[in-house]
Amino acid sequence: MFRKKTVRDVDVEGRTVLVRVDFNVPIQDGRVADDTRIRATLPTLNYLLEHDAALVLASHLGRPKGKPDPAYSLRPVVEPLAALLGREVQFATDPAGPDARAKAAALRPGQVLLLENTRFDPGETRNDPEFARRLASLGQIFVNDAFGTAHRLHASTVGVARYLPAVAGFLLAKEVETITRLLEAPARPLVTILGGAKISDKIKVLHNLLPRADRLLIGGGMANTFLAAQGYRLGSSLVETPARETALVLLDTYGDKIVLPVDLIVADRMAPDAQIRRVTVQDGVPDGWMALDIGPETVERFAPFIREAGSIIWNGPLGVFEIPPFDRGTIAIAHLVAESPGFSLVGGGDSVAALRQAGLADRIDHISTGGGATLKLLAGEPLPAVEVLEDKA
Ligand code: AMP
Question: What is the pLDDT of residue 351?
Fold first, then answer.
C-alpha cells in the first residue's frame, strides 16, 4: 500500500547515505530529556549500518531563526545516539558547511556523522535549492525517515530529493502505511475520537474522517462549539462562534455518526483549585463558568463504541488535561482505548502525553511520532516529503 521505495529497494553497500531523521527532541539543561524520537529511527539506522553504509544524519531541532543558536544545537544528541547505536558518532559544527563537507568526505562504511541543526541555515525552511544541493553533496543516496517533518516543504525534506536517489526509511514508511490503511481499509467499526481546542484546526480532518468513520466521538473545546450550535448554554467556555455554522452542517450531514458529550465538568476558572461541578448539557454551563472536561456520564456513553471498535483513531485531549483534575476524562478514554481489542492509532502530542502519563503507551498499537504530519494524512492530504520519493516499480 506504501507505493514508495524504501531502504530495502536500493543498494547502500559502501555508499554514504544522507538520512533525514527527526531528532527534534526536548532538551533540558543541555541533555536529551526524552529519547523516543531517537529510538524510533534505530531500525533504519541499524539496517543501513548492517549493510555497510556510512551515515550522514540531518535533522532540525526547535525553531532557531536561520542562524546558529547554541540553545538549539544538536550536539546533546551525540552521546545518547552513540550509546543506542553502540558506536562512535561524529559531529559536524555546521549543517552543510566546511566542517560537514570535510567530515562527510572522510567517512568510511559503518561510521556515523551527525550534522548540526539544519535550521541554522536560512535556506532550510525556504527550501533554498543552493542549500539543498550542498546538503545533497554530503551523500550519494537520500533516505527520509523523518515522519514528524514530512508535512514541511523544506530543503532537507523535499529539496535534497532533486539531487539524489530518494527513498523512505522504515519509520516513515510504517507511519504512512498505518494511517493510510486505517483510512482506506479499516477493520470496522471505525471509531474516531477527536478532542483538542478548536474545530477550525481540524476542519479538513473532520471532513475527511466523517464519511469513512462509523462513529465520531467528540470532546474537549471542539465539543463546546458543537453543543453551542445546538443551542446549549456554554457560559464562558471556549466556543468558536464563527465555526458554529460548520458544526451545524456536519451535524446535519453526519448526525447519526457524531456522538457529543452529555455531561461536562465545569469550573469557575482554569486552575487546579477552582470550584468544580458536573453539569448535564441540558442544564448548561452557568454564566461565568467554563467546561473544561467531559463528565463521567459522557465517558459511559463513549465506552461501548470504543470497546466494540474494530479500529480506533484518536487525536486530541478531551479536556484541559494539563491541569488536573481536568485530565480525568482524557485518562478514562486512554484506558478504554488501551483496553479495546480494536487496532488503535493515537496521534498528536497531547493525546500521546496523556497516554504516557497514564502508563498506557505500550498498549496502543500505533503511536504516531508526528503531530502535524498525522493530521495532514488524516485530512487526506499528501505529504510533500513523501511525494518526492521514488515510486516503487
Ligand atoms: P489541540 O492542539 O487542538 O489538540 O488542542 C490541545 C489543547 O486543547 C490542550 O492544550 C487542551 O488544554 C485544550 N483543551 C481541551 N479541552 C478544552 C476545553 N474544554 N476548553 C479549553 N481548552 C481545551
Answer: 84
CATH number of 186-378: 3.40.50.1260
Q: Which atom of ligand 1 is nearest to the CA of 220?
A: 16
Q: Is the CB of 205 under 6 A from ligand 1?
A: no
Q: Which residue has the cell 470497546?
A: 307
pLDDT in tens, 189-221: 999 999 999 888 899 999 999 999 999 999 999
CA dist 8 to 11, 146, 150, 293, 333, Å? 8, 17, 20, 46, 38
Whether 7-174 shares its CATH topology with 186-378 is answered: yes
What dotted CATH number matches 7-174? 3.40.50.1260
Q: Is it the case that residue 369 has pLDDT exceeding 90?
A: no
| pLDDT surpassing 80 at residue 356 | yes
- Atom 6 (ligand 1) nearest CA: 196
**CA distance linking residue 87 with residue 219, whole number of Å:** 46
Domain boundaries, the chain: 7-174, 186-378
Global pTM exceeds 0.85: yes
Write out pLDDT tens, residues 119-173: 999 999 999 999 999 999 999 999 999 999 999 999 999 999 999 999 999 999 9
Cis preceding-peptide flag for 325 (omega within 30 of 0): yes
* 316 CB within 6 A, ligand 1: yes
Collapse the DSSP code of 130 into the 3-class scheme (helix H, G, I; strand E, B; otherwise coil) and give the result: helix
**What pLDDT was estimated at residue 231?**
96
Atom of ligand 1 nearest to the CA of 319: 16
Q: Residue 220 Cα, ligand 1 centroid: separation in angstroms? A: 6
Ligand 1 pocket test target in 217, 320, 374 with most atoms within 8 Å of CB: 320
Query: Which ligand 1 atom is the nearest neighbour of the CA of 292?
Result: 19
